[in-house]
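thought: user wants a sequence for this fold. calling inverse folding tool.
action: design(structure=
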């Protein structure tokens, strides 16, 4: 039997112009910080922006954005709350801060449910914070969402870039569009990333230098938008990403 929710998902997403799935081969690369700050950059540049945290095992964008105490409204589905100009949805609205030890069918069901019940309305861009690697979660999202671009995050590490290349290979084999690679936590000029991906045609969109102030700014939007991290990412967005939307 076909799950009737699958038809509803298409309806929920039909008024969204662009869907960007932000992924990365490994954990600990600052992907959720990139997602949160990129959403802020887009909203502050006048784009109607949504953020869906699909990192079911370790959701953290709500901490970065300081989203505590803000909840969806219910009206024939869930209307995401607006946080700093961003429409926001996450599993934390259902699980709170409790751990979510999920497996296989449970993961698929939660992703389907989130996509089914969330009423996004008109958006210029919806950003998905994906879990690390190529897991059941990512494969489910690929199956359920037909129109999205991948934005891949890595750090200047041979291990991280090596794992990222495996992810890029899978995305390429599945004929999924990849808009480019963002290098996070750069410390110094280095050809490591460009050298390691010179056998692909995926562009490097830019590098975000390591910013030691980002931790103290987490959860405080006024401080976050004053960080070099935000300024670097905003520059990359305006120079290399917005033309792809």
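)
observation: tool returned 245 residues.
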């Amino acid at each position: 039997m076909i799950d009737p929710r699958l038809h509803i998902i298409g309806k929920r997403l039909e008024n969204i112009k662009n869907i960007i799935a932000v992924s990365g081969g490994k954990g600990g690369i600052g992907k959720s910080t990139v997602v949160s700050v990129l959403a802020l950059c887009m909203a502050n540049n006048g784009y109607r922006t949504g953020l869906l945290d699909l990192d079911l095992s370790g959701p953290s964008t709500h901490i970065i954005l300081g989203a505590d105490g803000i909840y969806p409204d219910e009206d024939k589905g869930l209307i995401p709350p607006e946080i700093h100009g961003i429409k926001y949805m996450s599993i934390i609205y259902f699980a709170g801060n409790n751990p979510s030890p999920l497996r296989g069918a449970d993961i698929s069901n939660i992703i389907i449910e989130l996509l089914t019940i969330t009423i996004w309305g008109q958006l210029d861009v919806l950003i998905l914070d994906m879990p690390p690697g190529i897991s059941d979660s990512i494969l489910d999202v690929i199956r359920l969402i037909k129109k999205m671009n991948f934005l891949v995050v890595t750090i200047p590490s041979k291990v991280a870039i090596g794992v990222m290349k495996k992810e890029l290979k899978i995305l390429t084999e599945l004929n999924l569009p990849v808009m480019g690679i963002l290098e996070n936590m750069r410390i110094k000029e280095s050809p490591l990333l460009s050298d390691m991906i010179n056998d692909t045609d995926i562009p490097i969109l830019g590098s975000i230098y390591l910013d030691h102030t980002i931790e103290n700014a987490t959860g405080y939007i006024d401080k976050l938008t004053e960080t070099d991290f935000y300024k670097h990412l905003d520059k990359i967005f305006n120079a290399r990403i917005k033309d792809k939307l």
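thought: summarizing for user.
answer: Here is the designed sequence. Strands lie at 16-23, 49-53, 73-74, 78-79, 82-83, 86-90, 123-129, 149-154, 178-186, 204-209.
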